[in-house]
Amino acid sequence: MASTARSLATCIFCKIIKGEIPSYKLIETELSFSFLDIGPLSRGHALIIPKDHAVKMHELPDEYLADAMPIAKKIAQAQGLENYNILQNNGRIAHQEVDHVHFHVIPKPTAGDDEGLVIGWPTKQLPKDEMVKIYEEIKGKL
To answer: From the CB of residue 131, how many other CB atoms can be counted at a distance below 10 Å?
Structure first.
């Protein structure tokens, strides 16, 4: 309990929600808070943060997830975006920098790698028996 209270007290996103740190607020609902990213990858890069302090998405109650995506959609529509990414990372090795669930809306205005999210997609080919094994393992737990 002490570490959770400490996390809440030091979490930059919790401070933004409380108004302790100023932000360029876009949309606020009972469950979510959205604002412009102050270190944007492109013009209009925004964040959507649940008001529940969960570190990873699987720890967040479903109603917060259901609230976040319509906000992402509204932000994309308000900017008239044709191309954009919705990004959400869980854990340091998955590039999560702030220990509070958050979603990025990242406009991709140009075809090159100079603006917006730049990613590689290192696909792998798995043998069919390995795919079946993975499928059965996951499906059996759903």
So the answer is: 11
